[in-house]
Design goal:
InterPro entries: ARM-like, ARM-type_fold. It holds the Pfam family HEAT_2. The protein is mainly α. It contains 6 helices and no strands. Helix 2 packs antiparallel against helix 3 and helix 3 runs parallel beside helix 6.
Length: 101
């Protein structure tokens, strides 16, 4: 809900909180992590560059097993018009096992 807030400061704060979550402590909550990944992928299209950047940072901190569930969507972001998003996507993809790609 906070990721959709009308105030950009609230959205940025929500993304920063998600980025600080310890993925290793949440492995038993795969559905939550998957939802987090989906939310961050959606934020890659946000109009605010700071939100896009924070979303990429958060994606990069998720467990590779969670990212693997969203690999097709993440790979598609290699065509994103924002160079920061494209670069961060590459950094996320190199963390994945080759057989996932």
């Amino acid at each position: 809900a906070m990721l959709e807030h009308s105030d950009v400061g609230v959205r940025n704060a929500a993304v920063e909180v998600l980025a600080k979550l310890d993925p290793s402590g949440l492995t038993q909550h795969a559905a939550v992590l998957s939802e987090q990944a989906e939310a961050m992928i959606a934020k890659l299209e946000h109009s605010d560059g700071d939100v896009r950047r924070a979303a990429v940072v958060t994606l990069g901190e998720l467990e590779p097993s969670v990212l693997a569930q969203h690999v097709a969507t993440i790979v598609a972001k290699l065509e994103h018009p924002d160079g920061r998003v494209r670069r961060a996507v590459v950094e996320v993809l190199v963390r994945l096992e080759p057989d996932v790609l």
